[in-house]
Amino acid sequence: MAGNPxxxxxxxxPTPGNATLVIFGASGDxxxxxxxxxxxxxxRGHRLPARFSAIGIARTNMDDEGFRKQFRDSLRxxxxxxxxDDIARSLAAHLYYLSGELDDPAxxxxxxxxxxxxxxxxxxxxxxAIPPSVYGTVIRQLGAAGLGGRTSEGWRRIIVEKPFGTDxxxxxxxxxxxxxxxxxxxxxxxxxxxxxETVQNLLVFRFANGMFEPIWNRRYIDHVxxxxxxxxxVERRAAYYEGxxxxxxxxxxxxxQLMTLVAMEPPIAFTAESVRDRKIDVLLSAQPLVNNGxxxxxxxxxxxxxxxxxxxxxxxxxxxxxGSSTTETYVALRMQLDSWRWAGVPFYLRTGKxxxxxxxxxxxxxxxxxxQVFKAASPSSVSPNLLVINVQPDEGISLRFEAxxxxxxxxxxxxxMNFRYGTAFGGPVPEAYETLLLDAMLGDPxxxxxxxxxxxxxxxxxxxxxxxxxxxxxxxxxxEAGEWGPKEADAPMAADGxxxxxx
Length: 503
Ligand code: BG6
What we know:
Layout: E1 19-24, H1 29-44, E2 52-58, H2 64-78, H3 86-92, E3 95-99, H4 105-117, E4 123-128, H5 135-144, E5 155-160, H6 168-181, E6 187-189, H7 197-207, E7 221-229, H8 238-263, H9 272-285, E8 290-291, E9 294-295, E10 297-303, E11 305-307, E12 310-312, E13 330-336, E14 346-352, E15 359-366, E16 386-392, E17 396-404, E18 412-420, H10 421-425, H11 432-442, H12 451-470, E19 478-480, H13 490-495
Parallel strand pairs: 1-2, 1-4, 2-3, 4-5, 5-6, 7-14, 10-19
Antiparallel strand pairs: 7-15, 8-9, 10-13, 11-12, 13-14, 15-16, 16-17, 17-18
Helix pairs in contact: 1-2, 1-11, 5-6, 6-12, 8-9, 8-12, 9-12
Bound molecules: 6-O-phosphono-beta-D-glucopyranose.
């Protein structure tokens, strides 16, 4: 029976074939906070392969037992789980650890031997949870040890964490290095936003419903606002963040991904290549962010202030940050897509640390009706229809429309129609890393960035950094921690006759 092409490739609770996960950076933050808890939850949900093992590799001196203890500690600390249950015990028994320098070929020989000892795996998934400065080293060593590329002994895949490069040149070089040892279909460039439930739901919302697509274009949509607001500061990540800044850290990857999912044309099927082909079109249609040497991006840095009732220091006083740092912790920008669907519809993106509220949302504002029929009854202009996709923390979708206030006279007021994951489905929403680890084991790269996506995204972002380097440092505005960014971010919106949403 011929299937509906939109359903082809859709996974209905599949379980991956037997696999070994090799985590480089096994004693690091990402492994403890995200990867080990994700493995536990996958195991609890019976989603791990029947035979599954994980080998951790890092410089920290530790043995298998030490790694198992780290696993139990991370469940307690980051998953709120007491690790005494059968699931934790049986998973821990399949955790192994190798310590050594990542540039030492002997480590890879020991790894090869361990992989051979762990009998019964159909494939191996390497995970680079290490600083980007050593991605190349590990990829080359894997290649030299014969652990890259295709093999008759089963599949091999590699997950590369963000940041994938720091600009266009380094991203291209990294792609070239990866491709020397792995084929593109073996490479899984992670962007954890794509694993978030609401982000995936955006595809379903758009392409599994008939009623939204006809109005999803320049005729009906006025503009789109994408916000990634965080209350946290730089925390203990100054060593990384100082060289990154908000544009690299959040826009080049996460917000660009959200924008492409909103703006993409319908794929012909829910398959990795079809979805990713349509997403890359969006980036290729984007106008440059720098015009005549001037970047259309507002940047700013947080100064001291108050967040959630606590006084917090300014960015330059954070541990590890250079006292005269010009790294931006906030950016706001306007993207314009030159396509039939979106010509003239701006996409406004903003993100910042130390903002008043943690919230990630996509707000699609529709055009006003062509005629104000209720002008006499409701002299103030009606609120435009607004579709808000709440990515986090309160996952859901809401639609704002005008309604009549119950009364004998005609009076209008905006009301909301709400869908909330929690109330609609109950049950916990899976963590992004669960979904993505499982997809990589299944060999499904739909929710991972393809090589051309990262390069196209850096093609837009890199000129902004180049222009900033040429600007005087004094051009960096500040905003008080706990405020909604700098006032400079309002001016470009006001010039378009629009305002940032108050969240
Ligand atoms: C990471 C960034 O990729 O995403 C962090 O490096 C940021 O700076 C984080 O805080 C936000 O992710 P989430 O899932 O907490 O919204």
